[in-house]
Specification:
- The complex is a heterodimer of chains A (492) and B (461).
- Chain A has 492 residues and is α/β, with parallel strands linked by helices.
- Chain A has three domains: 150 residues, Rossmann fold (3-Layer(aba) Sandwich); 105 residues, 3-Layer(aba) Sandwich (Rossmann fold); 169 residues, Rossmann fold (3-Layer(aba) Sandwich).
- In chain A, the strands form three sheets. In chain A, strands 1-12-11-10-13-14 form a six-stranded mixed sheet, sandwiched between helices. In chain A, strands 3-2-4-5 form a four-stranded parallel sheet, sandwiched between helices.
- Chain B is an alpha/beta fold and 461 residues long.
- Chain B folds into three domains: 177 residues, Nitrogenase molybdenum iron protein domain (Rossmann fold, 3-Layer(aba) Sandwich); 144 residues, Rossmann fold; 120 residues, Nitrogenase molybdenum iron protein domain (Rossmann fold, 3-Layer(aba) Sandwich).
- Chain B contains 18 helices and 15 strands.
- Chain B has a six-stranded parallel sheet, with helices on both faces. A four-stranded parallel sheet of chain B has the order 4-3-5-6, with helices on both faces. In chain B, strands 8-7-9-10 form a four-stranded parallel sheet, sandwiched between helices.
- In chain B, helix 9 links the parallel strand 7 and strand 8.
- The chains are: A alpha/beta (492), B alpha/beta (461).
- At the A-B interface, helix 1, helix 2, strand 3, helix 4 and helix 5 of A face strand 2, helix 2, strand 4, helix 3 and helix 4 of B.
- Strand 3 of chain A pairs antiparallel with strand 2 of chain B.
Amino acid sequence: MPYKLFDVSKPIPERKEHTYVKHCDDPEGCLPKCNSKTIPGSMTERGCAFAGAKGVITGAIKDVAHVVHSPIGCTMYGYGSKRYPTTTEMPDGSQFPIKDFNIKYIIGTDLQESDVVFGGIKKLRQAVRETNREFPFVNAIYLYATCTTGLIGDDMDAVAKEMEEEIGKPVIAFNAPGFAGSTQSKGHQIGNNTLFDKIVGTTEPPATTPYDINFIGEYNIDGDLWLLKEYFDEIGINVLSTFTGDCCHNELGWMHRAKLSVVRCQRSSTYIAKMIEEEYGVPYIKTDFFSTEYCAENLRTVAKFFGLEDKADEVIARRMAKVGPELEFYKEKLTGKKVFIFSGGPKSYHLSIPLHNELGLETTGVSSMFEHEDGFEKMKDRVKEGALVIDDLNTLELEELIEDYDIDLILGGVKEKYLVHKLGIPSLLIHSYENGPYMGFEGFLNLARDMCSAIYSTVWNMLEFKEIEDPDVADVTREADVTREVAEEVEK
Amino acid sequence: MSCVNLIEKERNAIINPLKTCQPLGAMYAVTGVRRAVPLVHGSQGCSTFVRYSLSRHFREPSEIAVTSLHEDAAVFGGRRNLVEGLQNVAIRLKPSLIGVITTCSSEIIGDDVFGFIKTAKKELTEKIGEEKTEKIKIVPISTPSFVETHLKGYDNAVKALIDHVAEPSEPNEKINIIPGMVNPGDVREIKHILSLMDIEGIVLTDISDPFDSPLRPSTAELKPYYPKGGTTVEEIADSANSSGTLSLTKYAGSGALSLEKKYNVPAELGPLPIGVQNTDQFLRNLKKLTGQDITDDILDERGLLIDSMADLSSRYLHNRTVAIYGDPEITAGMARFVGELGMVPQLVLTGANNKEFVPDIENIAKDTGNEIDTMVGQDLRALEVYLKDNPVDLMIGSSDGRLIAKEVGIPLVRVGFPVYDRVGYHRHPVVGYNGGIHLIDMITNTVLENYYEHQHWKLQQ
C-alpha cells in the first residue's frame, strides 16, 4: 500500500491520502494529496495568504513602505520577522537612505471596532498620506488586505489608485486576505500576479548588457543572494532584476528587458517567470542552487545560455577548491545519518539528493506545508524506496514519526524545532537558516557544518542521568570526542 | 517639577507596533493550563504567527490548534470548521481543556461559538461517550482582534476560564494569583515568595513550566506532547474557594473581580511587584488577604536588594536618564524602580491605551520627583523620533527596539516581550526582590560597559 495512516491520525482517516510511502514501481500519478483545504484542528503548521504575500514575496524589497490594513496583529506579525537583509545600493548608483528599511519599518491602520462597522477606507487613505510624509524617500507604497478588510469589503484597489494620483508615486494593493487559499502559497501567487500586472513593463533599466538575467524567487535569506550574485558576477552574467531579494521597486518594472529568467524558488515565483515569458518572450529556466553539485550544474546551464561555460567552469573550480576538502570531512562524519526534511515547499526536493551524494546522509522522508503536485512529484522522484512523502505533516504525526523511525536530525522551522528537541532529537532551522547562507558552495558548507554540530552536540548523549556503579570509570563518550574533533577541524 | 508631560500622538497610522491583537494573550493564558489546547477559530496565520512569536521568545514548543478558515468559511460561516476542529482536538489530543479563541474573522462572520460548541459536544458524545466528553472542558473565549490589545485577550481568557470552570465548595485557604503576561522566571519568583510566607497559591494561569520546560524524554508526556506543569482544571475550579485573588496587573483584573462578585473572593488589583515599593505592597496585600506574616527569610531577600541598591545606585546610576517602553504594567513598574535607583525615568511609552496608565505614571512622577514624558497608545516609531531629539542614557524594553537602540546609539536593557535576540530573559524574574536584584545587575552592568569602560581605571574598586 503506497499510503500510510499514522496511528495518531486514525480519527481523521482522510490524512491517509496526504501521506505517501515511496514504492519505486508505483505509477507516476501516485502522490500525496496536497494544496487542499486543511483539516480543522489537525495541528497544522501552515500559515496564511497574507504571510505568503508580505512575508515571502514583497517583504524583501528595500525601498517600499508596507502598509498593512488590519487590526494590529497582522501588522505586528509582519514586522521584521524574516531574515531578509538589504543594502542601500540602488541600480542607478544612488543610495537609499536607510539600510534594511524593509526589516526596520512596517505601517498598520490598526483597525478598531468602529472601522469594522463603518469601513476602514478613510483610515487607509490617511495611513498612506502619513507614510508618505514620514518616509518621503520611499519609491512606492504597498497596501495589504487582511482577513478583516477582506470581510468588510474595503476596496483596496480604489484607494491605491486614488492615492497614487494624490501622492505621485506608485501605490499598489495586494488582495491576499489570510483566509484566501489553503496555505500561504495562495499569497505567493497573488503577490506574483499583482507585481506582474502593476509593475512589470512600467520602467526601463539605467543600462542593459547582453548578459542580463532576472533572478526570480531569490529572496536573499540570510545573504543567499549576495553569495550567488558573486558567482554570476565572476562568470560575467549581470543580474538585472532580482525578484525580490535586496531589490528595489523600479527593478521589478524592467524585468521584461532581461534575456533570461532564472527561477530559484520554483513554488513561490514560477508564476511571474511564466507570465513574463508569455507577455514579453523572455524565456525562463527552473534552477537549484543548493549543494555544490546542483549549484555547479545550474551555473553551467545559465552560463551556457550566454555562451559563458568556460567562465562558469573556472568559477566552479575555484569555489570547489575552497570548500571541497572541508565538505569531505563533514561527509565522513555525516555518512549514514538519517534526516527528515520538513520545509515550506521546494527545499524538500532540493536537498534530498545532495545531502546523500555529497554528505552521505539518508533521507527518511520529506514533508511540505504548501507544495503543489509538481513539487511533490519531484520530492517523490528524489527519495528512495520506503521514504515518506507527506503533505501538511501535523505535530502529532511528527511525534509518531520521530518515535517510529530512526531519525538523527530534523530540518524544519521554529515552530517544530523546540518540540523536536523535547523528543531528544536535534533540529535545524531550514526556512530562515541558523548560521547561513545555505545556498551555493560556501552555503552548503555552512549547512554541513550546522548539521554536523547539531547531530554531534554533546548534549544528545547526556539527555538522562545515568547511575554508574564506580563513578571513577565515568568517561566521555565517543561522540563527544567527535564533537571535539569537529571543533578542532573548524578551528583550522 | 514633578509631573507627567503627556505627549500626544502625531499620526493615526501605527509605525512599528508596540502591541498585538487579543488572541495572542488568550493563547498565552490557555497554555498556562495543564494539558490544555488553545484552538484558534480563524485563519491559519492567527495561530502560526503567534506560535512563531511565542516559540522564538521562550525557545519552547507552542502547540496551538486552528480551525483553518478558508474562503468558503468566510462566505458561509465557520460552523463546520469549529465543530470538526473541536472534535479533532478532543479525540486526538485528549486535552483536559480546550480554549476556543475567536479572531477578527470569526467575530466579523458572526459565528455562534456557543452554539457550535454545543453541536460539537453532541457529536463528540456520540463518538466517544458522555463520560469522556464531559471530562473535556470547552471554554469559549471571545477575543476580537480589533478591540484593545493582547492584554485584553489575556484578561478575557483568564476571566473566561474562571467563569466556566470555577466552582464553589469548601474554603481552601489558598490565594489566587493572576500574574499578567510575564515570564516563567517571574511566576517562579511569585511562587517562591508565597512559599516563604507559607501560603498556598493558585496561579491563574501558570505558564512557568509550560514555557520553560525540562528536556527529559524519559519523563515527557508524548503523543501528544504536553509540557510539564500548568494550572490544573481542578485548581481553576477551586479558585472560587480561595481567601482572595491578587491580580498583579490592574490591566487584566476582570477575572479577579468576577470571583469577587460571584463567590465573594476578595480581589486586590496590582501593581506588578517590580522594585522595592511595589514588592512591599505585594507582600502587604498577601498579608491582608491571608493573615500570614511576612517572614524574616523574605525580609532578608529584600535586604539583599537594598544592599545592592546601596552599593550601586548612587555610585553608578544616579541621575542617568532612561526611556522605558512596553506593556503598561511592566513599563509603570520599571519607571518606579528606576526612580528608586536614583535614575530619571525621562520617557515612558506604551502601545496600549489603558486609562489607568497615566494616573499610575503621575503617582510615580510625584513619588520620584521627576517630570516624566509620557506617550500612551503610541508605537516604536514615536520612540525613535523622540530619542533622536531627546537622547537618554539607557533604553529599557523589548527586542523590537533593538534597531532603534543601534541607530541612536543608546544601550538597551532587554525587559518584557518579546526578547529574541538575547537568551535567558524568560528565565530570570523582574518581579519581586530577586527580580530587582537581577534588574539592578543588568542595568548597572550595561552602564559600566557603555559609560565606564572607556575609562577603565574607574572600574577598579
